[in-house]
Fold:
Amino acid sequence: MRGFAAGVLGGVLLAGVGAANAAELAGWSLNGFIDSSVAQSANRTSAGVSASRLSRSSGLGGLFVSDAFLLTGWPTGSSVNTARYMEFGVTVADGQELAFTTIAFSAYSDSGGNASWQIRASADQYMSVLASGTAVNVSGSGVAVAADISALGQRVGQTTFRLYFYNNTGLFNRDKRGLSGTNKGGIGLTVNGSVMDVAADPPHIDSIAIEDGVVRLDISELSPTGNTLVQRLDPFPATSWSDIETFANTAATMSWTSVIPAGVHHDLFRVKAMP
Structure:
C-alpha cells in the first residue's frame, strides 16, 4: 500500500486507506444430521481467511438433530451465564486485516419460545457485549438475526467470537437453543466483513534543515525493501509538486540532502513510498 508524508519544518500529512466491499468471510451451513457435541467446520471462507470450528463450551449438552446445531443447558433466567456459549472464529492471512460488519445466524429451537442472545469477542477477552437482542418464536426455521459487530473495527490475525443464549421462554425444553441450517430455511452462521491489505506506515519527515543552500530531510519509517520519492512544491503561484529524486531505502531511518535551486526561497517538501 502506498503512502506519503509532507513536511513544512517537520509537519506530516498521512494518507487514509479505503475498505473493500463487505462480503461473507466465513460460513457454516449446518445441514444434514449434526451431532452438536462435535465441533463443526465452516463450509465456506473468503480468500485469505480461515475459520475455526463451531464448538460448545462445557456445561452445554450436545444433541443429534437434522439441519441444526442444537444444544441443551442454556440458562432460562434473565442473566447470561458467560461460562456457557458457542464459540467460532476467523483468521486473516499475514499482511491483511479484517473490517467486520455483521454476524448472521438463525436462532432456533424445535420447542419454540423466545430467546435472548449476546455476542462477545476475543478483542477484549469477552469482557464486553458486542451485540445483543431477543429473538421471538424461534421455532420453525428459526429467527434470522444480523448482529452489528462493526464496533470491532479493523483487526489482524485471529478473532474469536462467543454466542450466548439465555432468558429463554416456552412451555417445555426452555434450555434447548441453537442455530438452524440452510436446509431448514435458516441462515446457518456467517461472519461478514471485508478483507483488506494492511496499510504500511508512510515515510515520516522528522525534520527539515536548510543551510548554505543545501536542504536536509531526516526521514523515518522507511520500508527496508522499497524506494522513496522526494518532491518539492513548485514556487508560488504554482500549486503542483515536482519530483526531485527517488532513492533506494537502505535503512528504516535515513537523511536526504540536495542543493536548493537558485531562486527557490521556500522549504515545502514531501516524500512518498514507492515500490
